[in-house]
Write a structure and sequence with these properties.
Elements (H helix, E strand, L loop, with lengths): L2 H57 L6 H17 L4 H22 L3 H5 L1 H36 L3 H7 L26
């Protein structure tokens, strides 16, 4: 064989191996995003499952505060429905739910019987813990999206990403007022 042909074949093989490596790296990053988003969904489902229990625990005490309970129930339904609409819509719906939960917790402050109710205290603690887990999951997801989006926008990956339809992913953004975890000061201690 001619030395030129061997060099050309070697260069082609190296290029193919590099392209396969870049493609596989993009696939791995895309799969990490999907896994990170699934973790957010697990935590959101947990929160969605806790809310009816909390509403049921407080509604007997809060008969004339029906609007707050209705708002929480409607926001929960909206958050569940938004789950299939993508990260941006889901984040907006979840932020609305967080806001209505804050309203509920603020109203609970006005009821000494509720502040002393063990079931309500446990549900509030579980919701607070779940909110923290959602926050950590969202941070992980957004970091993974940043890595992926940066990778598909830089050379040489941008060339492969464009050819194989790798597109930019959306972040799961929290509203500034949703950045804090709803908490209740029960006045103990």
């Amino acid at each position: 064989m001619d030395l030129t042909l061997i060099i050309i074949l070697a260069v082609v093989v190296v290029l193919v191996v590099v392209l396969i490596g870049i493609y596989n790296g993009l696939i791995q990053r895309r799969m990490r995003i999907d896994e990170a988003f699934a973790q957010i969904e697990v935590q959101l489902k947990r929160r969605h499952d806790l809310i009816p229990n909390l509403v049921n625990a407080v509604k007997g005490y809060m008969g004339f505060e029906q609007k707050v309970l209705t708002d929480v129930t409607n926001a929960r339904a909206g958050a569940i429905a938004a789950g299939a609409q993508g990260p941006a819509q889901q984040a907006a719906a979840e932020n609305m739910l967080t806001s209505t939960l804050r309203s509920l917790f603020a109203v609970v402050e006005n009821y000494p019987e509720l502040k002393a109710n063990q079931n309500v205290l446990e549900l509030q603690e579980q919701l607070t813990t779940t909110e923290n887990q959602i926050s950590f999951s969202r941070q992980h997801y957004n970091a993974t999206v940043l890595d992926y989006n940066t990778n598909i926008a830089t050379v040489p990956s941008v060339l492969i990403a464009g050819m194989f339809g790798f597109i930019k992913r959306e972040f799961f953004d929290a509203e500034p007022e949703a950045a804090s975890v709803p908490t209740v000061d029960l006045g103990f201690g």
